[in-house]
Amino acid sequence: MIRGLYSCLMWLVQPLLRRKLMRRSAMEPGYGQFIDERFGRYAEPVAAHMGPTVWLHAVSLGETRAVAVLVTALRERLPGMRLLLTHGTATGRAEGVKLLQAGDLQAWQPWDTPGAVQRFLNHFKPDLGVLMETEVWPNLVHGCQRQRVPLVLVNARLSDKSLRQAQRLAWLARPAFAALTAVLAQTPQDAQRLQSLGAKVQGVTGNLKFDAAPNAGQLAQGQQWRAQLARPVVMFASSREGEELALLEILNQARYLRPEGGPPTGNGTPVGAAPSPRWPAVQWLIVPRHPQRFDAVATLIESHGFAVQRRSSWGPGGPGAAAAEKSTLWLGDSLGEMALYYGMADVALLGGSFEPLGGQNLIEAAACGCPVVMGPHTFNFAEAAEQALAAGAALRVVDLGQAVNCLGVLLGADTLATARQAAQRFAQSHQGAAQRLADAVVREIFHETLRK
Fold it and tell me: Mean pLDDT over residues 425-451, rounded?
């Protein structure tokens, strides 16, 4: 009865979803492609296949990048498998193309109505479904259970905040979590929270994102460009709305300056001090989390009296003359180049952690040897954040003002070298989740299902 009311609501909002996708496609054309797939309607039939069809759902860009190592591990264990890859975002789908081989399939995640889910399952006929991290949808889970498709939640995480939200909707959430075939959690804490919702947790396998190696070519290019610069680079990584504004206001209140050619001045000028015409001790690089905000952030920077140099305007030689400009902030307005940006950066401020948004993934920064300064809000990656703190790969501050104040100390040669080494050791010490997940999915779940 309760799921029926939910299904009715999801059916009623479908026209709103279509309008939202068309509006979004004006900025990101990918959202305007194959819209009917969102509702379980497909233009082409699926060819017959002798091996198992493994459906893997990675909703967005971060999950799709992380899942690449799991796909490789699954192919090793299931040589005849056909991959069905689904996504919810345009950036995730574009990234997913890189994982496809001949015969593989790709589609949008079906909207969570009984009809769309049933059409999706009837069309693709997956032998196994693998969901990444948090993607538990009531009708999707129920449809798989009804059609006897084993459905596994891997790299599963559930924050305290998300648990409280799920408990408020327990009438809908508990049946969905309980109907999953199995859950493989990132941490013991995640496992405990998931079990409290009725999930059948079969193991703790670690965080798959530690196994995602940064693009070596991009990382080397960024490090090369950084070596050519006269100033250290501080990156605001995956910044979210409101955070760029807060940073720009801080920079306008106190520029944290040093004399030209002189050493850094410790913690810089206190907030509220008179602006100075001298150039700040660092070069700022802002990389917004969402590509549809690139233009808005560029306008915001200019409205605060700074010039903007966009990554899209750089040539093969990198920022070039922009490095000599005295009032220029760099804007990372490209997709798929986080390793390049982390390679350029001496230190990264963690986006999403200075507003109550839960923080973004800090693991990629650590893998690139880039120390992280994070704010108080890291509930989306609570365990990784605490581990990074303990390892010396990250520093927690109370707000952006304190983050900027501490840069003088962090950018000291000895301190920075120690933090870089700690970041790389931290990232390397937590690898191995992909192999554990692949073993669990194939041996303990897939093969067990076939034996029944």
Answer: 80
Please enumerate, as own/partner, the contacts of 14-18 that have beta carbons within 8 Å and a separation of 24 or more. 14/39, 14/111, 14/113, 17/111
Does 5 map to a domain? no
In a domain, 10, yes or no: no
Q: 416 and 442: one domain?
A: no
Share of the chain above pLDDT 70, in %: 90
**Interval 271-285: pLDDT, tens:** 333 333 333 478 999
CATH number at residue 243: 3.40.50.2000
Q: Tell me: do 189 and 255 sit in the same domain.
A: no
**100 pLDDT more than 80:** yes
- Determine whether 37 is an active site residue: no
Q: What is the pLDDT of residues 322-380, one digit of tens each?
A: 554 557 899 999 988 999 999 999 999 999 999 999 998 899 999 999 999 999 999 88
Q: Which of 37, 63, 244, 383 is catalytic?
A: 63
Give the residue numbers spanning the domain of 393: 216-429
Number of domains, the chain? 2
432: left (phi over 0), alpha (psi -120 to 50) or beta: left
Say yes or no: 297 and 364 in one domain: yes
- pLDDT exceeds cutoff 90 at 449: no
